[in-house]
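User: Second chain of the day. Same drill as before.
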Amino acid sequence: MKKDEKNIKRGEEITNRFLAFLDQHIQDVISGNTFEFMELNEIAQRLAISHTHLTDTVKKEKGNHPCHFYDIKIIEQAQIMLSESNKPVAEIARIFTYDPSNFSKFFKKLTGLTPGGYRKLTQSKFPKSSP
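Assistant: Same format as last time:
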């Protein structure tokens, strides 16, 4: 195997391990097994690589900074919760370790909608069936 091929495969491996770690970590936060989100340098340490190497590798493999994927995965899970539950937005914000007003700003920055607006939009598309 050529050196370039080896680097490409290692880059894919690091990126895939990072994304899988994020999925598990976010689920741990949602379930209450972990009480706060890890910093990127802590994640890199858990993956046994440097923060710089993780950042450079993910950017090279996926075209965006690792924080982009972290934010996107958090938003995806928040969207699921908003569309599939009747939990108040403030409670969902707390589950994701956010102050409710900061969560709304974060959510709107990434989706263009407030959490309440997103909920109304998705629940009007998929009305809850009555028992």
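The mean pLDDT is 91.

User: Great, on to the next one.
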